[in-house]
Amino acid sequence: PYPGDPRHALRAVLDRYKARGLTPVCAVELEFFLIDDSGRNLQVPISPRSGKRRKAAETMSIRALDQFDLFFTDLYDACEEMDIPADTAISEAGLGQFEINLMHCDDALRAADDAWLFKMLVKGLARRHGFAASFMAKPYEDYSGSGLHTHFSVLDENGDNIFDDGGPKGTDTLRHAVAGCMNAMQGSALVFCPHANSFDRMVPESHAPTGVCWAYENRTAAIRIPSGSHKARRIEHRVSGGDVNPYLMLAAVLGAALNGIEDAVEPPAPITGNAYAADLPQIPGDWKSAIDAFENSAEVKRIFAP
Q1: Into how many domains does the chain fold?
Q2: Domain of 105?
Q3: CA 132: distance to chain centroid?
Q4: Which CATH number belongs to the domain containing residue 284 in this structure?
């Protein structure tokens, strides 16, 4: 296979997991904007339901979803036909911004395929309904950008979650995986932020992480350990923008986690409070810095050129 194929890069990482008797379980969250791009300035589309444009964003609003209910009905119907495991839809912090989660999957290649097909489907259906859809990281200066977060755990040969210790903190292996992700984060920024516009999303207090850190149940951190049932103990990697290539993103995240597991690396203490206010190593904030970090990262070379 062609070594530059993003799907091949992910498969190579998964082969490393398989050799250790491990299986990653992944889920992705995709944020996007519905946009009227018919004029010079982008704006929220006219609602087919009300015939009006919404004037303000409403986070987690049923009313915001109802304004485009015909689009979302067609989207969920199409996902069912295409066997794309679309789950919850919510309205987000930007005007015309929404998020849909895809269900967790024990085949990371399939998870990436589903994410790629979902993005194409959303764009195509939006045009059919008379507007556009964008997964651009930062289409509006005044609103938070769109991310593509991934949640993942790892199963052993018995099907047990190796991050689960029966309590809220998780196992040593979870912390090793976190450390691996942190060690590769700066070098992987070029994967997570592939376009010049991607870095416009990476600003403080904008629902996108800027510092290399981890935390329990803290959405200002780059890596979050969600609360909930210990059986579902997992890592949420929150750096990637909506414009990311899902194959390369999962390869970078899962490869970094496995590096940490293999080396039994310990992370720094988890942060508490607002990560934006903490003195932290910073994720590269521009294209040149990201390219330099990528080219000089031993962790990235280990992931993509083992």
Answers
A1: 1
A2: 6-304
A3: 21
A4: 3.30.590.10
Query: Does pLDDT of 61 surpass 90?
Result: no
pLDDT tens-digit profile of 287-303? 999 999 999 999 999 99
Helices (H), the chain: 6-19, 62-66, 69-82, 108-128, 172-185, 189-192, 246-263, 287-295, 298-304
Residues 250 and 149: their CA atoms lie apart, in Å, by 10
Backbone angles phi, psi at 153, to 5 degrees: -130, 180
Classify residue 1: in a domain, yes or no.
Answer: no
Q: Is residue 229 part of a domain?
A: yes
Integer Cα distance of 180 and 98 in angstroms? 31
CA 242 to chain centre: 7
What are the structure tokens assigned to 301, written together?
Answer: 């070379």
Q: Is residue 224, in this structure, part of any structural domain at all?
A: yes
- Encode pLDDT of 168-226 as tens digits: 999 999 999 999 999 999 999 999 999 999 999 999 998 899 999 999 999 999 999 99
Q: Within a domain: residue 130?
A: yes
